[in-house]
Write a structure and sequence with these properties.
The chain contains 13 helices and 12 strands. 40% of the residues lie in helices and 19% in strands. β6 and β7 form a beta hairpin. It folds into 2 domains: 182 residues, Isopropylmalate Dehydrogenase (3-Layer(aba) Sandwich); 130 residues, Isopropylmalate Dehydrogenase (3-Layer(aba) Sandwich).
C-alpha cells in the first residue's frame, strides 16, 4: 500500500494555522506531507521549530513524489508580511489561493487528501471574495450539489461521530431546510462515505428529531411526522440501518451510542456542542460527499494564541485530522 500524499493548507497566516500545520507535519511518519502556504513564512517557522529539518519549496504538487520523507512547501505568496494575531485583508486572496491549489491537486490525483488549517472568514471577505466556510467552498469548487459536515473524535466510551443535516444556517431558517428529500440525500451520503471512506460495512445511523422530545407526537412540532420519519422509512426500505427520530437531549449516552456508528443531528448547535464537549482539541471536521477527501481541525484561528508567540498552540487536532485523512485514504484504496 502506497504512502498517502497529504496536502495541508496553512490557513490564516496571522493565526495558529501555520504553526500547527508545521508541527503536525513534522510528526507524521507514514505519509508524505505537502504544506500549502507562504514558503518564506513556513521556512522561518521551520528554523525556529525544527532547525534540523529542511523544508523543500516545490512549484507544483506533482513534485511531492520526488521528495518522499521530506516536508515540501507549495508556495502561495502573501501580499503582506504576516503579523501574529493581526488580520490583514491584503492576504485574503492568498488564503483562498491555498485552498484552490490544494483542491486542484486533489482533483488531479497528485495528492490523496486535503487537511485544512482554520481560516478567518473576515480576511477573505474583506479581500472581496464572498466566503461562508470551507465546507461550502469545497462543494462549490468541486461542483458538488450536496455535502455533509461530520465531526468525529475519540472519547472514553469509544469513537463519536456527529453529522449535520444543516450547517451554517440561522436557527430561524432551519425548519424549512429539513425536508424529506434533503434528509434522504444526507443519509445516503452518510451511508456511502461511512462504507467507502471508513470501511464500515453496515453503518448504523441514529437520527435526531428537530423539536424538543422529538416533537412529542406532534404537540411540539410536526417536522418529525411530516419530514424526518418519512426520510428514515425510505432509508430503511433501502436496507440501511437507520433509526429515529430520537430526542436529542437523551440520545447522547452510551446505551444508545454503543450501538451506533454516527448520529445525524438536525442543526449545528444541536449536535456539535456535545461532540466538542467530549472531544474538543482532538476532534476532526470531515466533509462527506465530495469527490476528494477533506478533513480539518475542530477549532478556529486562535488569534490570541498566535499573538502570544510560538509554543502556545496545541497541534493535537491537526495531527488527528492528518491521521483520519490517512485512514480514509487507505480505506478507499
Amino acid at each position: 500500500m502506497s504512502r498517502p500524499r497529504i496536502a495541508i493548507t496553512c490557513g490564516e497566516p496571522a493565526g495558529i494555522g501555520p504553526e500547527i500545520a508545521l508541527r503536525a507535519a513534522l510528526e507524521v511518519g507514514d505519509a508524505d506531507c505537502l504544506l500549502v502556504g507562504d514558503a518564506s513564512q513556513m521556512k522561518a517557522l521551520g528554523s525556529l521549530i525544527a532547525p534540523g529539518r529542511v523544508l523543500r519549496t516545490v512549484q507544483s504538487a506533482a513534485e511531492l513524489t520526488l521528495h518522499q520523507n521530506m516536508i515540501c512547501v507549495l508556495d502561495s505568496p502573501l501580499a503582506a508580511a504576516p503579523r501574529p494575531g493581526q488580520l490583514d485583508a491584503r492576504n485574503g486572496h492568498a488564503v483562498l489561493a491555498m485552498l484552490d491549489q490544494a483542491i486542484d491537486a486533489a482533483v488531479a490525483g497528485t495528492v490523496d487528501a486535503i487537511v485544512t488549517a482554520p481560516v478567518q472568514k473576515r480576511t477573505i471577505n474583506d479581500a472581496g471574495h464572498p466566503f461562508t466556510g470551507h465546507t461550502e467552498y469545497f462543494a462549490e469548487r468541486t461542483g458538488t450539489d450536496h455535502v455533509v459536515m461530520m465531526l468525529a473524535g475519540d472519547t472514553d466510551d469509544g469513537a463519536l461521530r456527529v453529522a449535520l443535516a444543516t450547517t451554517h444556517l440561522a436557527l430561524v431558517d432551519v425548519p424549512a431546510a429539513i425536508t424529506t428529500e434533503h434528509l434522504l440525500a444526507t443519509i445516503s451520503i452518510l451511508h456511502h462515505d461511512l462504507t467507502t471512506r471508513f470501511g464500515i460495512a453496515e453503518p448504523r445511523i441514529l437520527v435526531t428529531g428537530l423539536n424538543p422530545h422529538a416533537g412529542e407526537g406532534g404537540y411540539l412540532g410536526r417536522e418529525e411526522i411530516e419530514q424526518i420519519s418519512p426520510a428514515i422509512e425510505r432509508a430503511r426500505e433501502r436496507g440501511w440501518q437507520v433509526s429515529g427520530p430520537h430526542p436529542a437531549d437523551t440520545l447522547f449516552q452510551p446505551r444508545f451510542l454503543d450501538d451506533a456508528d454516527c448520529v445525524l443531528a438536525m442543526y449545528h448547535d444541536q449536535g456539535l456542542p456535545v461532540l466538542k464537549y467530549a472531544t474538543f482539541g482532538h476532534g476532526v471536521n470531515i466533509t462527506l460527499g465530495l469527490p476528494i477527501i477533506r478533513t480539518s481541525v475542530d477549532h478556529g484561528t486562535a488569534l490570541d494564541l498566535a499573538a502570544a508567540g510560538l509554543g502556545h498552540a496545541d497541534p493535537t487536532s491537526m495531527r488527528e485530522a492528518i491521521r483520519v485523512a490517512c485512514q480514509m485514504v487507505r480505506a478507499s484504496q
